[in-house]
From TrEMBL:
It comes from Clostridium frigidicarnis. Co(2+) binds at H148, E179, H211. The keyword Metal-binding applies. Keywords: Cobalt, Metal-binding. It comes from the Bacteria. The lineage of its organism: Bacteria, Bacillati, Bacillota, Clostridia, Eubacteriales. The active site is at H148. This is Anaerobic cobaltochelatase. GO terms for biological process: anaerobic cobalamin biosynthetic process. GO terms for molecular function: metal ion binding; sirohydrochlorin cobaltochelatase activity.
Amino acid sequence: MKQGILVVSFGTSYPDALKNSIENIENKIRDNFKEYEIVRAFTSHMILKKVKNRDGVHIFNVEEALEYMKNEKFEKVIVQPLHLIAGEEYNYVTKVVNAFRDKFKYIELGRPVFFYQGIEHLPQDYSIFIQSIKDILPREQGTVFLGHGTTHPSNASYGCLQYVLENQGYNNVFIGTIEGYPGFKEVLEKVRRRGLKEITLIPLLVVCGDHARNDMASDEEDSWKSMFEKEGIKANILLKGLGEIDKFADIYVDHIKDVIQGEILGEGETKKGDI
């Protein structure tokens, strides 16, 4: 039986970020599931177009990847997203997977890092994540993790992560978002309440791409680094995508194992057919 794992990320146009984060995770998955062929897809059509025009490299979108796997006679497919939250991108992947359910003998979708739609994974997913990054998570020095944020209800995942961090004693670690809540104003207020004069900014992002390099770390006046320093707070920078951290990458490996374990136990509600 031909088996494949489709690894789906938002994507990046930075070659070093692709190698250091996305490929690092893909290699972890490849090493753990040697009987599966690994296929890559991006969800960002803008990034796909940019990479195609700049480098002449074609990367599958999700529909193209599953069409390829169908044409190549894959019978069993596991789709593992590299998204952090179950937001709009994850919903898009879910819809595409559902559209292909009658094309494969078996197709199943893994969950993102914080699966807010599945209460059985709360708060374990958050504790597992914190454990995976504890080596870059100082308890004393102020740290601000900067995520993307969204208007989707799954933005609540950022607040849940903040709550679990505080419960575990990380009182000087703050979660902020670029396009959601909490934003800069809310995080600045938390930093001031703690009386901190110096913080470290770290991306809460799988890859170290535009958001990390520009919105967080650049010298532009509207970057988080510049805005903190304008408020008299020294902002150190750790430009490291989460995907570069091996223990974090292992989370996706474990989520694939959960899919396989659910299949073995007969608990998968969305699988099609028997293996």
